[in-house]
């Protein structure tokens, strides 16, 4: 069948939508919906899935949707089409985040095909890493990948700076753990063992009590007041990995969306080389801690993501909602 025929184009759109489901999102909320009109895909924010306490401004929601946007574009290129994208095209419809149209026919290069192969394999990690180092050349490449999407990735080399970021994460997690309403919002997205839900974090996907990294980067307490989560392996890896900050010059909705695109580009390129990421956004959800980080460690740029990059041999379960549930 010729690449340009209508059935092939329809197949490409369906493949892109199925791939977009696997984008990362805060607490695996999958806060997006899609519309299809001819050869156009509409990406919309599903505000019913927004974290009302932890993400009242919708920053993390738009980052999640930006990751879905990058995934759609990557999948379309793998199917042989260069996407034409308009981000936030209608000020009167703030939930409409992007319109993606099939453009010219292209031959996917080796790098694009490699990224496409990682879309369903990529997993968020929620514990320590092995002592195996992340290659410097890979980190340099990830910095370029982020820059090409409009964000800045900064691997943090200073042990003092790493300790400061860990301390901010500890302070934020401690404060949030005392907030009952916020804790309830977190465990709303923690799936109990045996749950048939297709969103949220599976009980097998987070440790009941994670082994401590050094310095200590606490995880979300998905097991709050519950005996959920996987049993910690006493011999589990505890290396911190490479701490990195993802920042933008401003703090607009356009830059939040660009952050998500940069994030997914980083994650897929890293996954090609067996490198996973753990996220720590607790401090970024508290204005004064985020502002301290911006002023002291981010050269006045706005921190959008704190992550650790490393190598792990865990293969945790992940779940996604069926595509019909996401279509409008």
TrEMBL record:
Source organism superkingdom? Bacteria
Under the heading InterPro entries, the entry gives: Nitroreductase/BluB
Descriptive protein name: Acg family FMN-binding oxidoreductase
Organism of origin is Nonomuraea guangzhouensis
